[in-house]
Each structure stands twice: as C-alpha cells, then as structure tokens.
Amino acid sequence: MNSKRCFFLLAFTLFQSIGYSQNFNGSYGSFFPKTDRYKKMGWFIAPGITYTFTNPNDSIIKGNTGSEVIYNPSGKVGLYLEAGGYKLFKFQEYFNYLDFGIAFKSLGGKETFTSTDLGISGNGEFSDQHGLLFLNFNSIKELSNPWFIQNTIGLNVDYQFSQNRSGGSLINEEFPDKIIAQIHYKFGFGFMATKKLLVIPSVELPIVSGLPNAPFPWLNYFNSSYYPAILSVRFLFLGDAKDECPPVFNPAGGFQPGGNNPSDMQQGK
C-alpha cells in the first residue's frame, strides 16, 4: 500500500469517527473519562510523521582559510509511531491523565552549499532513526461534548540506533550525539469517537534540551540547525470500570452482584 492510499485510509477513518461522535452524545458538561466510569489504566497507539524545520534564510560561514561558504538547509518528512499505556487520575484538578511508552522516530534533512572563493558546490543529506522512551502529563480543557483540547508537558529520551549521511562540505561540520534528552510540549484537539475510543490529533515540539546543545532544542547537522516537530494521531482505548461490589448468593439465580447476604437470609433477616 503506497503513502497516498495510507493517507486517504487514515483520513476516511477519522471522518467516519467524527461523524459517529456527533451522534454519540450531544449534551454539554463534564464528559472526559474519569475513574468512576472507566478503568484507571489502558493502552493507546499513535501513528504520525515528523518534519525538521530550518531557518529559511541562507547562512554564510567562514571556513578555516577565511573563505565564505553559503549554506541553505531544508527539512524532510519522516515516519513516527508510538505505543504505550496511560493512567487516569482520580483527582483531575491539574492533570487528567499521564501516559508512557516507546516510539520510533525518523529525522531527515538536506543542506546545499556553494562557495565562489573555493569553487565548490554540493549538498549533504541525513536520515537518522531513533528509538525513544517518553513520559507525559496531560491536562484536558473540555469544549462542547465530545470535543476537548489537550495540553501536554513531557520528557523524551532518544537513542539514535541508525544513521544515513552523505555529502557535506566537510568544513566545521557538527552532528548530534546518539542520546537526546528533551522536555517537550504537545498540543492536541481531540474528541470521543465512541464510548470506548478517544481520537487525539496533536503536534509535539521540543522546548528544552538536556542533551545535546542544552538548553536549546534544535539539532545540528553539517553546518545548519534543524528543529524537529511531530504530528501524530492518538487512538486511546477505554475500558469500563470493574464492579467493585462482590457477588452474593441469590436462591433464585445463584451468585449475583448486590442483594442480601447469605448469612442474613439463613437467619431470616
């Protein structure tokens, strides 16, 4: 299945979910899942894409010999996929739920360069693959049912397990370390697609970096800086809260939830 078919299939699924959600519950008021109605923990999956933003203006850098080289960077689209678990908070004054998990992230970009002094021109390209762990705290602002806004603050630790780089001017070049640790912010606009499914499209941006280039969140490749962003769609699966009342004996139908205590019945209470 090619990328266009995948895109249209995902779009069709989202539109179908939106259409269903309009008939799910049109009332107003508090509707976001809480622990009295749903299981405290569950799981989710979120496919998406990445893009590396750059400074669109050409940059001029002097080489070791004093010659000027003009660099022009550009970003590329990469793949993203995350999966993990979540926990609903019983008291949701500040954060409604936390989530954690693992993800795959591909980052790519390109840099062209020219130098009339040195008589050289060319380009450099990179495509790095990362495995990462993440932890997020999510705050929900309810709109009209079933719509809501999600604000997220979180931490991700990436490990670059594969890299593909070619070309480059070989003048004062820099590359990021294999380990990247960042604090990120995520904004989502979601809805309850069904009673058991939340759909949350969101964009994620790094805001503070621990590694590398602390505290700046951009990544250096060749002679340019790249700012990675993630666009993803989270599918969060809900489960009904378990009935905490233990089953008791009913002469007409065996053990059933609630009802009289067997010892009470035997004593004629």
- Indicate the proportion of strand residues: over 45%
What is the count of structural domains?
Answer: 1
Helix content: 10-25%
Provide the spatial order of strands within the biggest beta sheet.
1-4-5-6-7-8-9-11
Q: Indicate the structural class.
A: mainly beta
Q: What's the β-strand tally?
A: 13
Question: How many alpha or pi helices?
Answer: 2
Gyration radius from CA atoms, angstroms: 26 Å
Low-confidence stretches: 1-28, 254-269
Distance between the termini: 68 Å
Largest sheet entry: 8 strands, antiparallel, barrel
Globally, the shape reads: elongated
Mean pLDDT: 83
Order of helices and strands: HEEEEEEEEEEEEEH
Briefly, what is this?
The chain is mainly beta. Helices cover 10% and strands 58% of the residues.
Structural overview:
There is one protein chain. Helix content is 10%, strand content 58%. With 269 residues, it is mainly beta. The strands form two sheets. An eight-stranded antiparallel β-barrel has the order 1-4-5-6-7-8-9-11. A two-stranded antiparallel sheet has the order 12-13. The longest helix is centred in the first third of the chain and has 22 residues. The chain is elongated, with a radius of gyration of 26 Å. The N terminus and C terminus are likely disordered.
